[in-house]
Structures
1.
Amino acid sequence: MSEKPARPVLVTGASGALGRQVAAALGARGWNLVLTDIAPFPDAVPATARFARADLEDGVAILRLAEGCGTILHFGGVSTEHPFESVIGPNIKGLFHIYEAARRERARVFFASSNHAIGFHERTTRLDADCQLLPDSYYGLSKAYGEMMGRLYWFKHGVENVNVRIGSSFPEPTNARMLSTWLAYSDLVELCVRATLAAKTGSCVIWGASANTRTFWRGDARATLGWLPRESSDAFAAQVGGVVSTDPVEERYQGGAYCAIDYTRNEMAPRDIF
Ligand SMILES: NC(=O)c1ccc[n+]([C@@H]2O[C@H](COP(=O)([O-])OP(=O)(O)OC[C@H]3O[C@@H](n4cnc5c(N)ncnc54)[C@H](O)[C@@H]3O)[C@@H](O)[C@H]2O)c1
């Protein structure tokens, strides 16, 4: 039997694309799970799990759900670009509620951050995890803020957190950019397992991508967790390598299409000045 965490694991965003994958896989391992989302759970609830609907903006509900939990796998919130006012409630206030619950329970937080927190780095740059945060959208800005919230709660309260800058987690890569950013579901699940079971994590950053040869990224805390991705986008290169856009902004930056949303500069930014 595979190793299980000592305390239950709270999974937010459980009804979403990634939450469902994680809920099913950890449920199949017999993990004691508390699943939550604002939307109904669309699958059969695993035998060792329970599901409760809640809004991340309801701090009391989140405190109650987290009671007794040792880890919070936080996938809930606005997961694509939206107007600023729509992002702040679920992604900023909601994350604050997650951290307050983690502080009370002495729990660890797995934060589903995003490559869009660093999206305005150029594709020709190989980034280390301690690179500048260069958000490419209001959504990416909320993820950058979320990573900073993790640092605050670690330094001030000792709340451990694993900030996973997820690239593109879909069944398969569908364009050339995703040959650099793809994260296979099986690698994501194993990362959740390692982040939960690791003896210590402190506050760390992980690039959430499979072992893709064309990666933009290097140098993160995966050795501390004992996580090694096993899948790779390389096998899809012939299939999707030619799938590119005609937008120079999208193609220049790591964040791709998110950089081009509502882009109002008349000229491209100079390469050496922020
Ligand atoms: N899928 C990817 O490639 C990818 C890439 C980068 C980051 N991420 C991050 O991973 C997480 C999961 O992504 P996903 O693709 O499964 O997104 P998703 O939109 O499918 O899932 C997000 C879930 O959050 C729930 N949610 C939204 N607002 C809520 C609220 N106020 N209260 C409670 N629940 C709420 C939604 O109902 C949804 O089920 C997100 O935080 C996303 O930003 C995903």
Note: The chain has one domain: 9-260.
2.
Amino acid sequence: MKEQLEQIRAQALQELSNGASEEQIEAVRVRVLGRSGELTEIMRRMPEVPRDQRPAVGRMVNEIKQELEERIARLGEQQKRAAMERSLAEARIDVTLPGLSVPRGWLHPVTQSRERMLDILESMGFEVVETPEVEDDFHNFGALNFPPDHPAREMQDTFFLAGGLLLRTHTSNGQIRVMERRKPPLAIVCPGNCYRPDELSVRASPMFSQIEGFMVDRAGIITMAHLKGVLTEFLRAFYGADSGVRFRASFFPFTEPSTEVDISCLLCHGAGCRVCKHSGWTEILGAGMIHPNVLRAVGYDPAEFQGFAFGMGVERTSLLKLGVDDMRLFFENDLRFLRQFRSGEAAI
Ligand SMILES: [Zn+2]
């Protein structure tokens, strides 16, 4: 009996080695210490033991039971501690390290300029409307009174797409899109991207952005005087109250009469310098009274309605405003350049 007990003990201790898994430990506990386990079985067979040996066997059973219970408890502790150490090691955080800095972005200088321009125009009562960049010939040319043989319609001046579509060459399609579905009074500005097959250069880019604006009401209400007043007010709000503004007669298919608008040179303030070719003035936008053919194209009677329209390049106005002398800088996105115009600074 003693030998059997010794064997049970040795076997159990071997199985309860330091590397024993939770399942192995539980298996030993059930087999040896369980209600119908090996030690219980020994106790049940106690009557077979000679009377004088019973106390010694009983003691031995108790000792083994205690030893194994302690061993199992210690292994459980060890496993718990190991699990905790593992999870601590995995989630180790040194709270004394400096945090990761997240760089703050800011708006591109051209976006800042565009938003400033739209802010001014909205404060003057204009409503901002987005119109499509992919257009058909009618909305980009035909309705704007471009004759069928106008050079702007040629391959080298326009990106044509499949199905008779094209990438708009100006935001003037906005006039047609809005007037087609709405009736005057209208005071609208349409910002957006335009495309022309130009090489990227100091002065031009195949993609650029414009703001188109127009104001239409019953005949006699909106005149050339309003055009001059609105544009002068806008340009002085954008470039400074002391900017000179000059209107020159010009020609565009979609306006009659047409005008080009100059502002006094921002560098020499009218005295004459290399940038303004010593004229003291810089051309800034095109405008005019909306051509009667354009009004007819959208179903307006030119005897009943009239209005003015203007269009300007956002990159070009930004170049002058920011004193930048190369259009490509706006598209290369070199952070050393862009950092000079952190939010708000280009718009002030
Ligand atoms: Zn100048």
Note: Residues 119 and 126 are 9 Å apart (CA to CA).
